[in-house]
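[Meeting: bench + compute handoff]

Bench side (C.D.) handed over the final construct sequence. Compute side (W.E.) agreed to return the predicted structure before the next meeting so the bench team could plan truncations. Sequence as handed over:
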Amino acid sequence: MKILYITPLRGGIGHWSRCLIEELDKMAKVTIVTFRKKRKEDDAKPFTRIDDPFILEVIDPDRPYYLIEYNNPKTLEDTVNLTLKIKPDVVHFIMWAGPQILWFLKCYTKRLKELSIPNIATLHEVYPHIATEEEKREFLDSYTYIDHLVVLTEDAKRDLDESGIGIPSTVIPHGNYHAMDKKLVDKDKARKILGEKLGIKIGNDVNVVGFFGFIRKYKGLIYLIRSAPKVLERFPDTIFFAAGSVELDEDPSIYDREIEKLGLEDKFFLYKNYVEGQEFFESVFKASNVMVFPYIGISQSGAMITSISMKCPVIISEIGSFIRELKEKGVIRTSKPGDPDSIASEICWVLEDKERARKLAEYAYEVFSKDYSWERIAKRYMEVYEKAIRGT
């Protein structure tokens, strides 16, 4: 089978695609197309070569066609021409919550329909978490010519079914990120590296509570900050940190203000940049007793899955079917969305019995090894490709 695979090759979705492509390469001939410009920030410096070490493990930087630009209609023609040259059996488009590319998705899949080339799309989000009703309609309209949609959760499938767009859809969950752990640091080294980045010293007897990922309002970091005083009442030798870029946050200064208001300047630390370098990346998780994801508007999370793959206990807001499924399997702890008391209670559960928490993390790792392996996920995608080719 010949697959034309279109995806971002940066950030979280780039990591997701890297893992899927690694397995698809064993089963099919895969041609990769990626983006030169995803958004305005790329205008000054277009993306012309993969530089992410994790992605480079699987994808040679000369392999992808760096074609698509969010603001250049000619790139549509270039991609169609490449498609005609390759003659794929199926096209697979990886879509994120990026409104700037909706025009391309709709126009390209319309051309595929005219050319009788089957196509599927994976929607990492059906539409953005903060989308207006008009914006939701724009996203749904851009899917008009897609033959089959894949989503990551049952909630997303329900959103599609209730939208009335009438496109067949399948749920295929997010796979594990076990391959991200290169085992470059142990706990002692991790705490030394994290401490240097935060400008503090982290002893072995200190409890560490972490948050990782791009910081946006819907990620709920403010509620983790508000939970800290309640945790400190029971476990005073505890520090908290959040590591992740705030460039897209609606009000980046709110977190500093809240930390100051609660008198947490020597207890809650913010690293407001993209986490670069494998040792620092591993240290974020391996220095921590628990990673907390206090989301208020997200139902699945690559950062959560990374924590599990680093064998770090996880607390996440109980939002959506995927999180409930993981809770029922006994691999995570959940808190109530937007509730600092609930978050604090769960953090204390982890800190009061670290051996129990360690066993939880080990069990989560094993469950993800088996139930969310990329081999299993790739086989399910192959089934979807075959359905699209058959027109069923």
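W.E. noted at the follow-up: The two ends are 17 Å apart (CA to CA). C.D. will use this when planning the next construct.
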